[in-house]
Amino acid sequence: MAPPRSGARRGRPSDAVIHYTKRLNRECAERGDVAGARALLDAMEGEGLAPTLVTLNTLLKCYRNARRPDAAEATLDREFRRWGLEPDGCSFCTLIDAYGLSGDLAAAWRILHRAEAAGAADARVYSAIMRFLAPAEVPPLIEHMLLRGLSLSVTVCNAALNAFANAGDHLAAAAFFDRHMRGDVKPDDRSYSLLLKGAR
Known about the structure:
elongated
């Protein structure tokens, strides 16, 4: 059999790979249909096509929505290596979300540290874990992120505001907003909505 073709490691992926990836997302990922996703990947490979990073990240999304975080992490370890692809911030973000949704916050932290060690811890990774943190845990994480040389974005700041709002901690949300969102980071409509949510 000829080696799989995809453009996964260089250039643009083929239209066929893009088609399969879209089907994977539309037909399987949202519903957490792991069996369907695996069947599509087998069909891809049968046509001599190799998945791209986007394809495999979509597969991780499928495992997340199926509430199978351990299988998602095993997939990251096995499939990414098999296809010569490096996980990115989206990959680790999805794993953090998968473990957080399952209630295993210790594993979510472990994945964050894995992302840092791999040099893939971007804003998405920190935003993902904030979803599951108590308000008191947010400021130290923000400081840790800044010490690692990452800049705040409105996405990260909104994730922090969301943690405060979900806990009903309006004072913490307002203090965070005043400290971090009156300079380079410009609030958007969601920022103000979260401030109001925390005040209710």
